[in-house]
Q: What sequence folds into this?
């Protein structure tokens, strides 16, 4: 039996069409760094799971704090979505954020460098508003763009392998010293 054509999909339901409009409409507010405009597209009970930073933001208040930090870190932030799929109440997106790192992000003070943050989201929407968004982005790539990590290809060179071995050895040594400094139960 032949595989079905991957380009053929059924007609979108009214819910799916509304959800795709919402995820498209919110982008203009992201690109203007308009926190309240972004939040207008979110349900009061929004839950964001930021997988890369191991953080969860619950409610508009916590999302607002994160967005303000993000927009301070990247005042020229541009958010574009290259691919999206709607299925029922869910929308999957592939996206790219670009901006100049001028403020603290991931605990790292501004470097003045251009950063590209590719990522993906799985959002759930109800009544045309985001109720949850689990998003993943390339944190290592962000560190490379900030000039804090070398390209992975460097690990294939002799100096790169040497540096990695030193880093791993130093990490093991530090963990051993820390474990010896901890008080032992009596």
A:
């Amino acid at each position: 039996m032949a595989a079905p054509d991957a380009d053929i999909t059924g007609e979108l339901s009214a819910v799916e069409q509304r959800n795709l409009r919402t995820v498209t409409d919110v982008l203009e507010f992201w690109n203007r760094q308009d926190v309240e405009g972004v939040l207008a597209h979110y349900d009061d009970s929004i839950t964001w799971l930021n997988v890369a930073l191991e953080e969860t933001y619950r409610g508009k208040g916590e999302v607002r704090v994160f967005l303000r930090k993000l927009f301070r870190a990247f005042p020229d932030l541009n958010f574009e979505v290259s691919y999206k799929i709607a299925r029922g109440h869910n929308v999957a997106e592939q996206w790219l954020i670009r901006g100049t790192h001028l403020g603290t992000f991931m605990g790292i003070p501004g470097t003045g460098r251009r950063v590209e943050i590719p990522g993906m989201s799985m959002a759930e929407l109800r009544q045309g508003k985001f109720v949850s968004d689990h998003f993943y982005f390339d944190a290592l790539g962000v560190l490379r763009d900030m000039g804090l990590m070398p390209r992975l290809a460097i690990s294939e060179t002799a100096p790169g392998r040497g540096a990695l071995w030193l880093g791993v050895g130093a990490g093991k040594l530090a963990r051993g010293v820390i474990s010896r400094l901890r008080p032992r139960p009596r």
Remarks:
- Residues 57 and 65 are 9 Å apart (CA to CA).
- The two ends are 69 Å apart (CA to CA).
